[in-house]
Write a structure and sequence with these properties.
The structure is a single chain. The protein has helices spanning 14-25, 51-54, 59-62, 130-140, 154-165, 186-198, 296-312, 378-390; strands at 6-10, 31-35, 73-75, 82-84, 89-91, 97-99, 102-105, 109-111, 124-125, 147-150, 170-174, 202-205, 209-214, 219-223, 228-231, 233-236, 240-242, 258-259, 272-274, 279-282, 290-291, 325-330, 333-339, 346-350, 360-365, 368-375. The protein is of the alpha/beta class and 429 residues long. The strands form 7 sheets. It has a 5-stranded parallel sheet with strand order 3-2-1-7-19, covered by helices on one side. Strands 9-16-10-11-12 form a 5-stranded parallel sheet, covered by helices on one side. α1 crosses α7 (296-312). The chain is globular.
Length: 429
Amino acid sequence: MSELPRIVVVGAGLAGMCAAERLRELGFDGEIVIIGAESTMPVYRPALTKQFLTGELGFKEILTAPTHDLDALWRLNTVVSQLDADKRVVYLPGGEQLEYDGLIIASGVEARSLPGAMRAGSRVAVLRSISDSRRLRQALNGARAPIAVIGTGFIGCEVASSIRALGQSVVLIGQSKLLMNNLLDPGHAQRLTELHRRNRVQLQLGTQVEEWVAGSSRVQLRLTNGRQVEAAFVVVAAGSVPAVSWLRDSGVQLDNGVVCEPTCHVAGLEDVVAAGDVASWPNLRFDTKPRRVEHWTNAIEMGRASAENLLSGRGSAVPFMPVPRFWSEQHGLRLQAAGMPAVGTVREPIDPTTPGGHSLTGYYRDKKLVGVIGFDNSAAVLHYAKSFVDKTPVARPDRADDVVDRTGPPGNGRSEPPSARTLPEFLRV
């Protein structure tokens, strides 16, 4: 064991990097080891379906880097195979066992696969990495058949928009009758669907792929509605699953991700926290049900919060209660959201006379507003985002002084290292 305390971060993406940054900001002077299957430093992932795909931004422009020297050991291209929480060890290739004093789980998510997709070989890709986006860009050059995109959520719709911006034909395939129907109210979903149709996106909705047939230059997709699509390349945008296979049989509670307490501490484990897409935690600003939030800002904020609470120790940690914000741009239209729309049980239009004549959708639960989504209306969405900050959390922590606002710019948490009294055992002198 090292003479200095060692904190291991599993996941070399944005959440892991931001956690390491916060450890150093708070004065942690032990070892930091960042391990990840990623081949590069974190990238600005939203650009993979937009500006990087269209060529507006290059690799160096979407590559992120720490704001200062982390003095950390980066173990890229390294897959963690197992966690032994009792021994405080993570297992690496070649039988290597790496001990830790504190552990931050930030292993993210993996793209969901579809039955039969891999039979189409090199002409099929997901869109999770730089290499995925580059493969699609290469396929777009001189393609003599449409690009097929499977999935009508954020990723699928953004990819379809970017492909049309490059002048290439695209077919968007999905089980729902309207685009982004799982999130938008019927009116906005219809409006978005018509927007794609006006921009000459070929829509195959209310159907799914029944059979994949790979040819020498194309992939033939046979759909359940009886139609066939000949595609030069296929993008699978069918969602994601938490990257938790390495945590099987480790004692970590898994339920659509790593189950955490409100403070980001992993349920049932000592000196282990989780952050980013893989973490499922109750955001007490809205309710007590653990949920995952797969958004860029949440990766930043939760990475930092998890580091703060790891150093504080469980007894002095505070709940992580952000107001999530996310956005999407498709065919020049900007969709923005704030709050937790998924928590809402009722969707209703609000502010029908906002500037520009664009309405917003409010998401309500028990007659309380819990989320908003708007089209081309940044001012109104930001107004409601602030209103969520100003409201009393739906679920109060046990101690009133535990309510800490983490909704401002990253870094709005503690400005000083926790006192020695609050430190976990492995940091006490």
